[in-house]
Amino acid sequence: MDTPEQSNKQRSSAEPMVSIQVLNACRILVINGKGGAGKTTVSTNLAAWLAHRGERTVLVDADPQASSHYWVTHRDPVLPSIYSVKIETNSRTTRSFQWRAPKPTRWLITDAPPGLTGPALDDLVQDHDLIVVPVQPSDIDIRASARFIGELLLTQNMRRKRRPIAVVANRVKQQTNAWERLQKFLLSLNIPFPATLRDTQNYVRAYSEGRGIVDYPFQSHARDRQDWEILIRWLDAQNSTHEWLKDESPSNTITNAS
Fold first, then answer.
1. 8 Å CB contact between 127 and 162
2. Which listed residue, of 35, 76, 88, 119, carries a Cα 20 to 30 Å from 147's Cα?
3. Residue 252 and residue 258: Cα distance in Å, rounded?
4. What domains does the chain contain, in order, with CATH numbers?
């Protein structure tokens, strides 16, 4: 039986690889300036969910820890296939060559490295259509996320073409003071927060088994699946409008109107 890495190689040899900049897919950037916010949890579960729908899904791991790539390589081959792209930060290979995916890709999810600022952050924004920011309910995380989202909104590419942003509240224990503070913070942003992921060992177990919540029987993970269904509906709503594909620069507006 083929391993996920072998399946990747076999598929890529038969399919053309193209730059993600020209990929006809919805490209989702999962990012936060602070490490430990839950990027890998969100990225892997998103990939599993979209792959379960039978839609070609690619998971790009740009974090030096390579946790998402590790998850894919430990995924059972009987589960819906996910194509993994591991970005090597110290590689001599050019960025354009590394950031490629199979042409038939429908969804691309990037697990971004923490701590990006300035041009490096702006470059990643340029290559994606939707942005998901995981946030944990601690004072340190809330303050760090507020600073990061502010910087994100001020990047050149966000000002030129605003991408839809959603915040995902991660590892939440409801009815706690931390949760109340996080809710106030999210409401103050005027940014959607369509999903609240509870603090449960289900995610720890799923990661260790190369699975997402959607890969388990419905009844055993019904509560967590409901959280993800809300986020998936938000993603589908953004994707269906295709508004994020339009360049809002004056020159492009004139071209579209003609």
1. no
2. 88
3. 10
4. 16-257 (3.40.50.300)
